[in-house]
Fold TrmH family RNA methyltransferase.
Amino acid sequence: MRKASNNEIKLLRKLARKKYREKEQRFVVEGERAVEQVVGNGLIEVETVFVVEGRAVSDQLSAFSVFVEEAVFVEVADTENPQGILAVCKMPDEIRPQKLAEETGIIVATDAIQDPGNMGTILRTAAWFGAKALIAGKGSVDVYHPKVVRSTAGATGSIPVLTGDLEAVFSELERSGWQVMLLDGGGSAEPLRSIQPAEKTILVVGNEGNGINENLLNSGRKKVKIESGSAQEKVESLNAAVAVSIALWGLRVES
């Protein structure tokens, strides 16, 4: 295993910032299990695996591996107690709306989801239920933020991603038969259990504190809610990622 070059370490440092991730079209996966999953599933191109000096790696990872001194690794790692292994990967191309227009099933869309843990869990859950894509609307955390990638537990890259203005994307997809469903706890929302999902369903979850943008809520699109227990009065709302999980279970669409 060779030593990492100065240029490789320089790039690794840069990838902590979104603007450099976008410029270089690369991101970091940290942690042994996550790195092994990404390498194993073959959905994302792994360029380099950085390993702290003296740490053993599996045969699966050895072909990609370079070593760095512990002080350098601690500096570039995003976790408080790093495991001594991380990978630099190429970002997959975003899916185009024209491609999604041809699909059937469920798409998950996030309206200004800002918590990396929530976004990572939403991505992981969407992949588990076979969602066709995730649409990250404006104001949503970068899906390649290190904390988001860790929260996916190795599922990054398992479903296509599209970023952009939700209204513009929805308008284009609706022309090809996609139906938008907005998760909302308001009185005008229909109970999830009474919904018959369409063959093409876009499930939208809103910001952790403010919910879905009013412009989307007032668009005339279908609003759905997850009903609480009859005697529940103490909990204001569900966590965004939990709400998506429940809704995906209830809106399973065979495609």
Q: What stands out?
A: The chain has two domains: 2-90, 97-250. The longest helix spans residues 116-128. The domain at 2-90 is CATH 3.30.1330.30 (60s Ribosomal Protein L30; Chain: A;).
